[in-house]
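Case study 2.
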Amino acid sequence: MKIFYFQAEEWEKGYVSEKLKDHSVTFFNNRLEDNTNLQDDEVEIVSVFVNCHIGKEEMDRFPKLKCIVTRSTGYDHVDIAEATKRGVVVSNVPSYGENTVAEFAFALLLAISRRIYDSFKRIKDTGIFSADGLRGFDLKGKTIGIIGTGKIGKHMIRMSKGFDMNIVAYDAFKDEKAAVELGFTYMTLDELLSASDIISVHAPYLPSTHHMINLENVAKIKRGAVLINTARGGLIDTAAIVLALKNGTLAGAGLDVLEEEGYLIDEDALLLSAHPNIESLKTTLENHYLMEHPCVIITPHNAFNSKEAIERIVLTSIEDIAGFVAGSPKNVVMVK
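Prediction:
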């Protein structure tokens, strides 16, 4: 089969080529949308990364497309309904790094709770070796609210136990067995927001989870709480984060994902658009506010990015492709 593989790192090319040596694999260093004139009447499988949008327009470029393999757990960047309508199978990587992402979320939390970035920046910028004004807070005894108790959320719960934290959780689909085994309590989302000293978001991004935290419920957050998001930017209304920081509801935030983060990579695409989206412009400006805020740490969607996790992602994606070719698709994403 003819395969297009986008955003390939150099080491991947030889590895993937060897594993799929019976197929024609063409590698691209950049995203599908960066190749605006790319069309192919023969390609049957496309492999994309998490920040590569593929919808109707992109699928139209490949009339024989049969399978999309996304090298990610999340798949909101793929139009699943359009793919299903066309009979195109979509496969993802359902589990590659529950520990990887949870570790990163805790790294963000510790960086905020113990003022690690501020401490480093003082030494780096001024050479002053002083702890004045850099007092943090302990995690022991604090209540952490986990939004989403899938594999990553559960790993976050186990880590929180190691810090002697109290754990509450919200999930639309409760795992009561896990709650007993891991020792946490389910609450409604509003109850969790009110009870938690730290809120860590690990939910999937779906139409039903869009802006789970928003301008209406952000006021219910416990005053002085810290927000951590390593899931998807669209789970939280950016305007709500800005408001909560301005009025002191949030004492800080650690964000690995942002709404409209694609425009932070390529702002010209937004500014030079013939019909600029006002909401996207507004969110992009709010993102810049967050980037400049002294109590916010922002990282560039990097929670997945460990050596071991990337190797697991690539291997699972190869297995997804091989399974489809063999007539037994794996890790198939269904319309919800």
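The first strand starts at residue 2 and ends at 5.
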